[in-house]
Amino acid sequence: MENFREMKSNQYGEIVLDETDLCDLIMQGRDVTQMKCLIDAMVDIESAIDLIEDPGQLMTWTFPDNSDISIPDWDRIQQRNWHMPAEYKQLDIAEHVVAMCDTEEKLQRVGHELLLYQERGLFDLLRYLKYLVDVMRDNHVIWGVGRGSSVASYVLYLLGVHRIDSMYYDLDAGEFLR
User: Fold this and answer.
1) Contact, 157 vs 176, CB < 8 A?
2) Same domain, 88 and 154
3) CA-closest candidate to residue 84, choices 10, 38, 121, 134
4) How far apart are CA 139 and CA 145, in angstroms?
5) Tens of pLDDT, residues 149-177
6) By three-state DSSP, how is residue 75 classified?
7) pLDDT tens, 94-137?
8) How far apart are CA 33 and CA 72, in angstroms?
């Protein structure tokens, strides 16, 4: 714990770790569950009030009560439990993506892809990807240009998931959504 003294402490001399300190200690192989310290949870007061008023926004994990549940059944249960703020869960993702189109050609492509996403029940995934990209942008996280068949989706390009304009390169959306 020699690096602890360099970290922040409160007025009572208790060590207070922020997210960076905690991550650093975990990456050093420290067992943070055995440490006597406080975690500095910088919480936006308005968000905290929203959570108190709507506890459904809290992140919860569902674990099977019955050990007889199959892995595919457990996975299906988890897929219904997307961990994102209510504003993203309620977002009309089709309307959002369509509004990003500035030509008839782009509108036709997006309309076709959205039908494919809807047929497969993937609108919640698109909402989550919008949330994920927004969080990464807000926190200055760098992610890849794109890889694999996902770059064939113009909708994912518009959401910022990847940076390959599939219309420019004439990539078939069917390559991704088969």
Assistant:
1) no
2) yes
3) 134
4) 17
5) 999 999 999 999 999 999 999 999 888 87
6) helix
7) 999 999 999 999 999 999 999 999 999 899 999 999 999 999 99
8) 32
Q: Is residue 139 within 8 Å of residue 147, measured between CB atoms?
A: no
CA distance 152 to 165: 8
Measured CA to CA, the distance from residue 127 to residue 41 in angstroms comes to 27
Domain membership flag for residue 52:
no
**Count of domains forming the chain:** 2
Query: What is the value of pTM for the model shown?
Result: 0.61
Place of tokens 């200690």: 25
- Sequence-ordered list of residues with C-beta below 8 angstroms from that of 2, at least 6 positions apart, any chain: none
Provide the β-strand partners of residue 17.
39
* Residue 128, Cβ density class (10 Å: 0-12 exposed, 13-18 middle, ≥19 buried): middle
